[in-house]
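Cross-posting from the chemistry board since nobody answered there.

I work mostly on the small-molecule side, so proteins are not my area. We synthesized magnesium ion and want a rough idea of how it might sit in this target. Sequence and SMILES are below. Is it possible to get a predicted 3D structure of the two together?
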Amino acid sequence: MKSLRHIFLILIISISNNINGSEDNKSFQEQSMLAVLYSQTSAEFSANNIQTYNNARLALDSALLDKSWSAALEQKDNYKNKMPAIILDVDETVLDNSAFQARTILEGISYPNGWVEFVNEENSELVSGVKEFLLYAKDKGVKVFYVTNRIHILEEATKNNLKALGLPFDEDIDVLLMRDENGWTRDKTSRRNLVAKDYRILLLVGDQLTDFISSEESYVLHSERKKLADKYSSFWGTKWFVITNPMYGRWEYSIYDNKTPESEAKAEEIRKDSLRP
Ligand SMILES: [Mg+2]
């Protein structure tokens, strides 16, 4: 009975923390307000995404003509006559979930609280430029794969959302590869390997380094991580197209050296220490 009371108490505390948030939690979440406003309100952000997808379309034309072209590090040999495909991440690459980020500020909650409920609403909007690009790719006979770290139980809702937006979505094989599905981990390397078996991968599009390279390589301190942009300089804008995500991502976690800070106060302290005046 005592333990039941204990569980009940924890439940109440966690519900009040998750839904209402403490004042402290709210002020911490509010630090991402400008990033979310930039994503939601600025013409510059939309223009940048349209620019990225317009350039990706030009690259697609070149890739289709050049059979020796592949964008995937996982693609080793014997791919010249394979069917053409492209791989896109979903969140903040195809689907704009800034509404979820706005909620975390207004409600003082943080991911993953409220995320499953948000995805199940199936109301995420399009990232600017992506629909035109994907319809062009589809028209050219290119297979479109979505490789996402949304968890497997969200597959149906994600598929419904993508289809409702009028995006290409083939049903002959699984084109939506989720985390936890078939034992797939957060690292997308094995899923790129799988696509590379039957397809020549023309382009990769994403908002995180791990949409292009392994987790092992990218889970490093931010100063080392930043060097990876230079290491792959010949890929960006030719075979790899990156969407800017100022709201969240591994870039933030790498500031904390890929360890969860013990408190929000500690996270804030590390954030300030990482600024370069
Ligand atoms: Mg993403």
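Reply from a structural biologist on the board:
Welcome over. Reading the output above for you: The domain at 19-274 is CATH 3.40.50.1000 (Rossmann fold). The chain is about 50% helix and 10% strand. Happy to explain the token format if needed.
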